[in-house]
Amino acid sequence: MDILTSTNGYNLKTNTLIFNSIAYFIALTINILAGEGIINSEWGDFTKPILIPILINGFIYQTKNTKNRFFYYTIAGLILSWFGDILLMYVETDSGFFIAGLISFLLAHVAYILSFTNSIQNPLSFVEVPPKQLPLYAIILAYSAVFFYRISPYLGDMFAPVLIYLLVITTMGLTALRRYGFTIPISFYFTFLGAVFFMASDSCLAYNKFVTPIPASSFWIMSTYGIAQFCIKMGAIHHLNQFQKSGVN
Fold this sequence. Notes:
The protein is an all-alpha fold. It has one domain (6-243). Helices cover 72% and strands 2% of the residues. Strand 1 (6-7) and strand 2 form a beta hairpin.
């Protein structure tokens, strides 16, 4: 199956999607190389603010015939992530930018949660989890609990904000998992993979900031973050294009 072309009876605008994806990963690679000091850091300052706009442009173009709540929640998540990217660029000049960036990404995760739950037709499904999904639920919850236990002694005044953030991103991961069976498989797998990579990226960021510096931190943080946003965008595109004639709200 070609994940960038046609699946499940609908056609994506292949050439544009491929071009958009290539442009995105070129910009992401340049940003990572700049973050690791392999190329001039100014390239990082240039590429980071354009990453999310590239995704937004591709997302809007691929779904321009479908405007509904799922679409707008996803756009909100991308835009709030963009704000977070820009705010975190100025952390070294003022620590207040870290809090502002944290809040922006927190709201982005809330928007993604609303997007994911919008494609779940039965709200009661959250208390009716299929037995085969329980191990994955347990893994996500256990990971979040163990990770917070590990970093909590180093948080100081950031204990409560980080706990709230962790609860929200964990919820985002669980709602992405719960979409299984309520959307087409390719949308589910893209979205769930994106949520997992987002949790990995934020874990690296938190561990690097509060506990100890991670070797090649820019690579680990930005590569997982970049893949996360790309996968969430692709999952949303496939969902909207498949269900644009099915009355998705």
